[in-house]
Write a structure and sequence with these properties.
By secondary structure, the chain is of the alpha+beta class. Helices cover 26% and strands 30% of the residues. It has a single domain, classed as Aminopeptidase (3-Layer(aba) Sandwich), CATH 3.40.630.30. Strands 1-2-3-4-5-6-8-7 form an eight-stranded mixed sheet. Bound molecules: coenzyme A (COA). This is Acetyltransferase.
Length: 178
């Protein structure tokens, strides 16, 4: 990931783009952190926006999804082997991990999350060194799991990550291409 530019990814058909998150997005992200559907998906996650947005790293990219200029969601792509928090434990090279949420409640369930994931996955697999992408929905977030399954992710295992019991899913490059 260190040689990748921070790209702006665009889906013209759905008029949706992913642009890099900046320190100016902090109030927006903190507001989204209080939305019940976001809390339900990440009840134990404490995002340190002030630090994270101000200190870009070469192993993590954070994007705001905008539709026709309105910010509607957030997506993060990171290299789990280089994640300095050690959240993912022992993982190999050539992987990416994604976190995603639609922040605005009135934009849920309209297909934008699917488009965001397609843009993010295309971005991940544009790097030929990336062999697979990981995600970690809570074990009881069945709706999110179905969302990932429809995108081609396959269930790997249930695992405790941080304070949560999660279901680890993985999308192989070959499944993405298919
Ligand atoms: C998961 C999420 C990113 C999907 O984006 P979206 O634009 O709402 O989804 P799409 O319209 O593209 O696809 C619809 C599917 O999304 C999932 N979904 C919709 N609302 C959801 C919600 N509140 N919580 C979890 N999944 C949801 C469901 O699988 C839904 O299909 P269904 O109606 O048949 O159950 C979005 O719903 C969201 O941010 N949910 C809350 C936070 C979350 O669960 N994030 C994932 C954590 S791993």
């Amino acid at each position: 990931m260190e040689t990748d530019p921070i790209n702006t990814e665009v889906n013209a058909k759905r008029r949706l783009r992913l642009r890099p998150a900046t320190p100016e997005d902090r109030p927006l992200l903190e507001r989204w952190d209080t939305e019940p559907h976001v809390v339900a998906a990440n009840p134990n996650d404490k995002w340190e926006w002030q630090t994270e947005l101000a200190q870009p790293t070469d192993w993590r990219q954070q994007f705001i999804a905008e539709r026709e200029g309105r910010a509607i969601g957030f997506i993060q792509i990171l290299d789990p082997a280089r994640d300095e928090s050690g959240y993912w434990g022992e993982v190999g090279d050539g992987l990416r991990a994604i976190d995603i949420w639609i922040g605005e409640p009135d934009e849920l369930g309209k297909g934008y999350g699917t488009t965001m994931m397609q843009l993010a996955l295309a971005h991940c697999f544009a790097d030929p060194r990336v062999s697979a992408v990981l995600i970690d929905p809570l074990a009881d977030n069945r709706r999110a799991q179905r969302f990932y399954e429809r995108l081609g992710f396959r269930f790997v295992e249930r695992r405790h990550l941080g304070n949560d019991l999660c279901c680890i899913y993985r999308l192989e490059r070959s499944d993405w291409l298919a």
